[in-house]
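Hey, quick one: can you model this chain's 3D structure?
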Amino acid sequence: MNRTPLPEHALKRTPYNQIFAALMLTSLVGAYVLLGGIGFGIALALWIAGLIFYGRAFGKRSFEMAMRQREQDEASHQQLLRERARHAAREGMTYEEQSVELAALYGRVKQDVPESTRLPFRPRARHTAELTAEGVVRGERGGFPSTIFDLAVVNEVDLSELRRRGQFDRAVECAKDYLTVCAVTLPFALPYLSAQAAWEYSDDGSGEFTTPRKSGALEPTSEQRHSDDPQFARMLLSVPAVREAAQKLDLLWVIWGDQLIASKLSNTGLAPDEAFRRLGTVAALAAAFPWGQLAQYRQPKDAVAALPALWGPPRSPLLAHQWWHGEGPDNPWVLRWGHQPLGATGLHQLSSVGLFLDGRRTDL
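Sure thing. Here's the predicted structure for all 364 residues.
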C-alpha cells in the first residue's frame, strides 16, 4: 500500500512458509500412521479451519492497523488546515473551511445515492456526491487571482488491497488521501492542455483511453492526446520556461478553461509553506506565458461554463505524479482523475487511472 505497507501473510514469507509446510506434512503423516484415514481427515480439517481462522484474524488486524494510520493522517490534515488558515491571514488572503461550489468544478457530482444501491457502488457514489473542497484559500499571487484547496480522493492502489481485508465502505474511507490543488485564474480561457504533452507517452495499457484507430492509422501525437488544440500546445511548449515547467514531474499542470492547475497527492495534505510556495510557482508559470501570442487561441466567454460536468482521464483537470511501489521520485507514473460510470445505476465515481510517461520529449 502507499500509506502503510501491510505485513505479508506468514505463508508468503520465508522461512515461515517452509516451517508451516514441514509441520503440516509431519502432522498429516503422523495422523495417518496412528489413526488411519479417519485421523488423516480430522487433521486435514483442523489445519484448514486453523488457516481460515488465522487468515481472517490477520486480515482484520492489518486492516485496523491501516485504519489507525488513516485516522492519524486525518488528524494531521486538520492541524495543517488550521496552520493554513493562519498562514492565509498573514498573507492577506481569505480562508474558508469548506466549499461545495468549488468541489462541483473539480469532481463532485450531484446525484442521489439510495440506500438500496448495492456494494461496491454505494460508497464510491456517495464519496463523489459528497466531495468537498477543504481549507480553501483565495487571494492574489503574482498578479493573478489564486486558490488553494484540498480534495479527499480515494487511493485506488490502497483500496484494492484494503477491500480484501475489511468491509468495502470502511475500506473506501481508509483508502482516502488528500489532493492539494493550486489554481491560478488566467486573463481568459484557453484550449485544454496538459503538461503530459511535453512527454513521450506510453501505450502499454496502463490507463490511457484513446479513440479506436483504423488499422494502419498513425499513432496520435502527444499534443493530440493531451490538448484540444495541437497547434496551441506546440506554440506554448516552445517557450523554454513553459516547457521546462511541463517536464518537471513534481509540477505537472493543466490548463482548464481559464484555470492553470497543479495538484499534488499526499497522505495528509501539504504543509502551508509548501502549498503557498507551489501556488507562487504556478502564478510565475502563468506570468511566463506569451500572452501577446495567445489572443488568437482565446476561447469564448462562456467556455468555462461549458466545461463538461463529467469528464474522463484524457481531459482531466487533476493529475499528479505518484511514486509506484516504493520507487524513487523519478519514476514517471502519473495519476489522472476522472468520472467513471458505476454499472447501469446511472451513478458515477471520481477515480484515478495511471499512465507511464516514457521520457521527456526532445522535439519541442
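One thing worth noting: The two ends are 37 Å apart (CA to CA).
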